[in-house]
Design a protein that fits this description.
This protein has 333 residues and is α+β, with helices and mostly antiparallel strands. The chain contains 10 helices and 8 strands. It has helices spanning 26-29, 34-38, 40-45, 61-64, 111-119, 166-185, 259-275, 291-297, 308-321, 324-328, and strands at 6-9, 48-49, 86-91, 96-104, 137-140, 147-153, 156-157, 198-201. The strands form 2 sheets. Strands 2-3-4-6-5 form a 5-stranded antiparallel β-sheet. Helix 7 packs antiparallel against helix 8 (291-297).
Length: 333
C-alpha cells in the first residue's frame, strides 16, 4: 500500500480567493480582494502572513520585469466566488500553510464555526475516527459584530495526486465511512459530503507545500509542487542509540521517513569505527578523506542528509581520487 492519505471532512463548499502570477495589478484593488488587502497588517499582527500581493504598494514582478513573450492564455486561475470569503496564508511562528475564512458568528449562519469548534474540542479531536478538519484559531474582526475569522489547515483534493493502488482506495473508503459514522454518532448530519468537501492533508506528501488553487504547482506558482512519496514508518530503535530523531520522549508517536535514519546508521558506523573513534574503538588517522561525506551523513536534521544514491556517487569520486600508494598504506591507529 502506498503512503496513507489523511482525509478531512469539510462543512461547506468554498473555493479559495488566492493570488496568481497571471493577474493584472488592478486585480489587487478589485472587489474580490479588497477585503483581505485592507486587513493585511492586522492579520500579520495576529501571526498570519498573507501573500506579498496584499501588502500596500505591491507591484507584481511581471510589471517591473515583463516576460519576453506572453502565453496564449493570460488569465488567472479561478479564485473563488465573487465575495471570496476564503484566503490562504502562512502561520508565521511555524511557516504552516493555513486557510483564513470569514464566517458568520450568530444564528443559523454561524453553525459552521460552532460545529468546527465542537469537533476540535479536547473530548473529540483526538478520536481516531474523527476526520473533521481541525480548528486552529478563531479571531474576532475589529469593528465587525457579525463575522469572525476561523483558521484551518490548507488541504488539497482527496484525489490529488491520483491513487496508485487498490489498497490506497480501500484506505480512503474506510476513512470516509468511519468519519461520517463519527459525526452521525454525535447527532450531526454533514448534508453535503460530496467530493468538493472531501479534502486531504498533503503535508507528508508535499512537505514544501503547494499552490492553493493549482495543487500541482508549488506555493509561489513558479514550478511543480515537489512530492515526497517516501514511505513513512513508526521509528524503531536499532543497536545504535544515538540517532538524533529518536532522542525525544515521544519519538514513536509519529511516523517518519526511515531512509535518512539508515544513512545516519551507516555514517555513524564509519565515524565511530574509522574516522573519529568511539567508546570502545580509537580513531584511525588515515581516513580523513571520508570525513566530509560522513559529516553529511550524520547531520542532526534528517532532511539534510544525502540519499544513498548521493552517498554512492560521492564515495565513487573519493575512491577514484585515491592513489595506489594510499590504498596500499598501513592503517594508522
Amino acid at each position: 500500500m502506498g503512503l496513507s492519505r489523511d482525509v478531512e471532512l469539510l462543512y461547506s463548499k468554498r473555493f479559495l480567493c488566492s493570488y496568481s502570477p497571471m493577474t493584472t495589478p488592478a486585480d489587487v484593488e478589485g472587489i474580490i480582494e479588497d477585503y483581505w488587502h485592507g486587513k493585511e497588517p492586522w492579520f500579520k499582527s495576529r501571526g498570519y502572513q498573507l501573500h506579498p500581493r496584499y501588502k500596500k504598494g505591491w507591484v507584481p514582478s511581471w510589471v517591473t520585469n515583463p516576460p519576453s513573450w506572453q502565453p496564449p492564455t493570460w488569465n488567472p486561475p479561478a479564485r473563488g466566488p465573487y465575495h471570496a470569503p476564503v484566503i490562504d496564508a502562512i502561520r508565521i511562528r511555524d511557516d504552516k500553510a493555513v486557510v483564513l475564512k470569514r464566517t458568520f458568528k450568530h444564528a443559523v449562519n454561524g453553525e459552521e464555526t460552532k460545529l468546527t469548534a465542537y469537533f476540535s474540542s479536547p473530548s473529540l479531536r483526538y478520536d481516531f475516527n474523527n476526520h473533521c478538519i481541525p480548528l486552529l484559531d478563531v479571531m474576532d474582526i475589529p469593528d465587525d459584530e457579525n463575522f469572525a475569522i476561523i483558521v484551518v489547515p490548507l488541504l488539497r483534493p482527496f484525489n490529488s495526486p491520483r491513487f496508485d493502488t487498490v489498497g490506497e482506495c480501500v484506505d480512503l473508503f474506510q476513512q470516509i465511512f468511519k468519519g461520517l459514522q463519527f459525526i452521525h454518532h454525535q447527532q450531526v448530519a454533514h448534508r453535503d459530503c460530496s467530493g468538493w468537501n472531501l479534502m486531504m492533508d498533503g503535508t507528508d506528501m508535499f512537505p514544501e507545500g503547494w499552490h492553493p488553487i493549482r495543487p500541482t504547482r508549488n506555493r509561489e506558482y513558479t514550478g511543480h509542487a515537489k512530492s515526497d512519496m517516501m514511505p513513512q514508518a513508526i521509528p524503531m530503535h536499532g543497536n545504535d542509540r544515538t540517532v538524533p530523531e529518536f532522542q525525544s520522549e515521544d519519538y514513536q508517536s509519529r511516523p517518519l521517513n526511515p531512509f535518512p535514519t539508515d544513512i545516519y546508521y551507516l555514517g555513524n558506523l564509519i565515524q565511530t569505527n574509522f574516522t573519529e573513534g568511539g567508546e570502545y574503538t580509537g580513531a584511525k588517522f588515515c581516513f580523513d578523506f571520508m570525513k566530509p561525506l560522513v559529516a553529511d551523513m550524520v547531520q542532526e536534521d534528517p532532511a539534510k542528509r544525502p540519499t544513498i544514491d548521493e552517498c554512492v556517487a560521492r564515495l565513487d569520486e573519493i575512491v577514484s581520487s585515491l592513489s595506489s600508494w594510499k590504498l596500499r598504506s598501513q592503517v594508522n591507529r
